[in-house]
Amino acid sequence: MNTLPKATARRRGGIVSIVLFSLALFCGGMLAVSCGPKAPTTLQVWTYDSFVSEWGPGAQLAKLFEEKTGIKVSFVSKGDGGALLAALVSAGKEAEADLVVGLDNNSMAKALNTGLFTAAELSNKDKLRSDLLIDPSGKLIPYDFGDFAIIWDSESGVRAPTSLEDLTDPYYAKRLIIMDPRSSTPGLGLLAWTQAVYGQEWQDFWGRLKPSVLTMTPGWDTGYGIFTKGEAPLVLSYSTSPAYHKAYEESERYKALVFPEGHAAQIELVGVLASSKRKKDSGKFLDFLISAEAQSLLPETQWMYPANVEAKLPDSFDVVPEGIRTIQAEIADPDKDPEVAAEILTSTAG
Amino acid sequence: MIKELQRTPKSGLPRPPRLAGGARLKGPGSRRPLAAYLVVALTLYPSLAFAASVLLGGAGGAAEAWHELILALKAPSTLASLRFSLLQAAISTILALIVGFPGAYFVAKYKFKARRFFLSLAAVPFCLPPILVILSFILYYGKNGWFSAALSTIGLVRGPGGFLYSFGGLVFIHAFYNFPIVIQNLGSVWSRMPASREEAARTLGAGPFTAFLHGTLPYLMPALLQAASLIFLFCFFSFTIVLVFGGMSGSTLEVGIYRALRFTQDPAKALALALLQTLTALGAVWAFSHFDGRATQSKGFGVVPERKKPNLTAGIFIFLYTTTIVIFFLGPLASLVIEAFTVRSSMAGKAVFGLDNFKRLIVGTGSSALGSPLLVALTQSLLLSGTAALFASLLGLIVAAGRPRAWISALPLALSPAIISAGWGGAFRLRPEIIILIGQTAIAWPFVARSLEAAMHSLDKSKNEAARTLGASPRQALLRVDLPAMAPSVASASAFSFSLTMGDANIPLIVGGSRETLPLLLYRLTSSYRFSEACAVGIILAAFTSIAFFLKEGRGEIS
């Protein structure tokens, strides 16, 4: 009846805090102890999170590289894609890495501006698709790429659009999911794509596209997730996306559409840091990463095309349409244009 | 001795004077804020260091940083997103209060079967990452969702399907995502309310409504405002949900901050937007605390009424309320569970029931040396979040006991999550695991402190005063009178902080490191097309966080 604390409860107050505190100390200690010391003899490669995940290529690449050269390599996740460049910028010359894997054409300028990379010697550079060699200084080397494309749900009952321009047809009202150009790589890709196709008139295109857009998601995963749940028949993604559904779901329901205007691409880049004390080994790793053997591991882990023309493609990539024309696409003003594009979509007028 | 003293009814002990401006009483409330300020300062240190590095010596020097700052503040898009952030957060908060209020009342006053279930719902908003919240709402309310299907079977026309992706959809989702906070926080205070408060009013001839208005409402005000300010902050900083569902109607400041930090590497702009965001959030917190301070402090006396079995009318209302919650809130969650057990692997995309998603997670691909991805992530999560939650509870208790000014303890809550993560990410040259641990402790304790502050507000101060009169030192009175009375609130706050740290993926995603936690696993799954497996991880995550709540509810009832 009485709301006042009972004697036991009173004692418990003191005991509880002691127990809590010692538990906290214990767990903290466990955590500290269980972090093994870093072996200084291994090659350190900074990369983004999904490269080292269970489904990424990291573990297999490391194993293969060690078998071939006897050199141990350790992939260190610096968080997601955005965090990788931020970590590099903030660490500067003191970055404890020999190489960085996972920059791309969007972040290339910022990455080169840091002056942290050194030109790499490659023995098999001629095996790389020449249109991917976008860094004239030869410091950042392409290792895979993916064309941005609209993926169409063939079971939606909606007919497939035939071109970028066709997407603005009123028939496609609220039928397209795209990603925010302010916060995602595919979003930036669409912006670059439309700028390459429409030049100065790209803003008009975004204005015309607006009624077709059901929603704009902050990242690729949310947008693609909504798409696979049937919310819209069209989504912005990569031309290689159908390969995943083929490989893991035996499904050819989702199709990448080839547009006559050509497609913009994301090109992923690797570079050796000038501060690396193991430049020779770093060079070996670079050679390895773009070798046909290592490159063959990328399609079904990265879901991207290998940069090496001799790399073997898995069967699942048969569903990726051929004849996609990759166009050189760069965002005119990377600081302002994404904001402008997003504002066109979110403005209440129109 | 103290046991004796507790029997002493509250009598004519002189009431200590109010503190000017603070509207708080001495006694248990005497300010000993030094330790609290220290904790706040340490928590803010990384973000402050980040700000200082931008302002004092960014890439282009201080002058350019200031220029950037002013430029960003003057941009028309900044004002537009501020306005939109405020508007959607305010409406979402009001809706969440409306949805949660009846639940808080039922939980406080009645014994019924679904009671514990309602209380454990509070874990949900904190442990489900936004992408799963979005998927769950899509699976349920979406074009091919269960709700839409049910509507069309009973003859109601299927909606245009566009409702979710509008301002209405956004605030609807925010409300149904956050209302359990109201049940949890308001319910626990309400159940401690002495009967005298309404009885006195009723005795004086007031009707039930007037009695509620003058007796009950002032008592509940601190908890109500506390829950409101929490929900407001969540919605104000909401990022993914706002963009996905309200995406075409506006954008929040957080988007701009995220972009400046992670995409354009423009810390000066991020700082400018974050300053504006924090000042606004603090303004909101200050306003809440201000009204909170004006709510009367007299706590009444006498017996707290036992929870009773509902009579017929109450029973019907409870049933209707429970049904509403099940339909609108549990429905989406249930579809997430079903999705987790759904395997899509045939040519026609036929879906079958099965455990494959879980199996694949437990077995793994065999490519990593670590073994089972699920078990590894689960162990790491429990260890890391358990530790962080313990630290967070301790710090939260220390801060709440010190009773700093409301806006100071709310300071960490008013920071942009992106800025906090960035601050911790670059703050120390420690092992990533340690930074994650410290960082997660730092994001969780302010929530603990804030809910304990609300609990302390409603403490019966006369007991502490009585103990002091009988010669107990302030410390003794705190440890032996106030703390035990607050034990349920502390337990509840600890469970809460466990949910928070368990669900956090932001800090690991910025700090990096090799440790795989459940939210990180979930992120990795969704970024490699594996949405059904991600739902499976989400279910496990949700199960573990609600276990914390169930355990707590099982041990000590809130009262």
**CATH superfamily grouping of chain B:** MetI-like
Strand content of chain B: under 5%
- Count of DSSP-assigned helices of chain A: 13
CATH class of chain B: Mainly Alpha
- Please state the structural category of chain B: mainly alpha
Number of strands of chain A: 11
Rg of chain A, Å, rounded: 24 Å
CATH class of the largest domain in chain A: Alpha Beta
Q: For the largest beta sheet of chain B, what order do the strands appear in spatially?
A: 1-2
Count of discrete structural domains of chain B: 1
Mean pLDDT of chain A: 87
Low-confidence stretches of chain B: 1-29, 554-559
Q: Share of helix among residues of chain B?
A: over 70%
The CATH homologous superfamily of the largest domain in chain A is termed Periplasmic binding protein-like II
Would you list the SSEs of chain B in sequence order as H and E?
HHHHHHHHHHHHHHHEEHHHHHHHHHH
N-to-C span of chain B: 24 Å
Structural account:
The complex is a heterodimer of chains A (350) and B (559). Chain A is 37% helix and 17% strand. Chain A contains 13 helices and eleven strands. Chain A has helices at residues 7-34, 49-52, 58-69, 81-91, 108-113, 185-198, 202-209, 220-228, 241-249, 279-289, 292-295, 299-302, 337-346; strands at residues 43-47, 73-77, 99-104, 117-118, 140-153, 176-179, 213-217, 234-238, 254-256, 265-273, 305-306. In chain A, strands 1, 2, 3, 4, 5, 6, 7, 8, 9, 10 and 11 form an eleven-stranded mixed β-sheet that branches. The model of chain A is unreliable at 1-13 and 32-39 (pLDDT under 50). Chain B has 25 helices and two strands. Chain B is globular and about 65 Å long. Chains A and B meet through helix 1, helix 2, helix 4, strand 7 and helix 8 of A and helix 1, helix 7, helix 12, helix 13 and helix 17 of B.
